[in-house]
Write a structure and sequence with these properties.
About 60% of the residues lie in helices and about 0% in strands. The chain has eight helices and no strands.
Length: about 170
Amino acid sequence: MEEKTIPTQTSMQVLKPKLVKIYSQDELIKQYAPAKFMLNAGKLVSIKDAINSNSYSLGKLQREHSRKFTESIISNWLIYLNETLNLNNDMSIEQIRLASVLICEEFYMLKMSDLTLLFKRIISGQYGEFYERLSIDKVLTFFRNYLEERFEIAIDQSSRDHINNKQNEKI
């Protein structure tokens, strides 16, 4: 007669299903609303803070959701900028859509924390006067200036990390 073993609770691996909330596109867009991020903008003082943040990049949002989804998020941020600055000649919906496309193409490496810091700087006037007008070229110039500064800081940080690693290897 063959002996059978009956698995007990301790010998069995108990598998619990992982519950994952599925968000609609609208819920996700609300999750990435600029007003929500700007409430925590005080935590971002420098570009280094934004770089070291665990937030998603625009590229990751595009990969995980879609290009249209990411463009919608950027559009919401630009609408927020329009409304916050309260300029006489703000961007039209068509200009916002085009700017969103261009931002997703050119600045996909920026994180949501970068957007938060960048928009905080724009709103506070760090990028100069608007002369009652906001346009695609101005917005893209703000993004390019920010990205250039971000690259310089990232290169400097990477160089310092490399030097520290080399010194630690010698020890």
